[in-house]
Amino acid sequence: MKTNIIAVLISAPLWALLAMAAENSGTVTSDRVSIFKVPLVCPAAPQIGCGSASKPILLDLEKQPGVLEAWLNRAGTRIAIVWKPGSDAETRRKLAADLEGDRATELDGKLRDETVADFLSGKGWYRGADVDRLSEEEAGIIAARLVKRVQTKGTLPNDKAERSTSAN
């Protein structure tokens, strides 16, 4: 009897976690996604998003009621918010208004639909901790730029230049 009670007490939190995961793992459909135009392009590497600027925003968004996930596109020009199943319209409107106060604009129409399709493809979008990869890429771009400058100003052998710009 005592063993059964212990087993139930130990397994109850696991069942709760599994139930939460099942609720949140539903297939994401376009009606559960909002897209915002944002100015999060990296100043030092304008072809990618800025990891250090976007990370706190994405992590904060995921703490908001009704938000399941928040993503940044590779270019740093769009944020996708995936809403929890059953999130209400008022929660969505309030968060959209807060974001728009921070220089974000919610997309609609054809541009929204195209961006949602791109997002749902799963390629080139980053969540909070994943944007660190953009920061790493930015560092590589800056390092390559510096090495190139040093090479034009002086004599830096090619092998040293390659070692300076390659990842360790």
What does this structure look like?
The chain is α+β, with helices and mostly antiparallel strands. The chain has one domain: Alpha-Beta Plaits. Helix content is 53%, strand content 13%. The chain is built from six helices and five strands, in the order αβαββαβαβαα. Strands 4-1-3-2-5 form a five-stranded antiparallel beta sheet, with helices on both faces. Strand 2 and strand 3 (78-83) form a beta hairpin. It starts with a helix and ends with a helix. The model is unreliable at 4-9 and 11-25 (pLDDT under 50).
Kindly report the CATH topology.
Alpha-Beta Plaits
pLDDT under 50 segments (min length 5)? 4-9, 11-25
> Could you say what the CATH architecture is?
2-Layer Sandwich
Helix content: 40-55%
Number of helices: 6
The largest sheet is: 5 strands, antiparallel
CATH C-level class is Alpha Beta
Widest sheet: strand order?
Answer: 4-1-3-2-5
How many discrete domains? 1
Could you spell the SSE succession in H and E letters?
Answer: HEHEEHEHEHH
Task: Tell me the structural class.
Answer: alpha+beta
Keywords:
168 residues, alpha+beta, Alpha-Beta Plaits, five-stranded antiparallel beta sheet, 5 strands, 13% strand, elongated
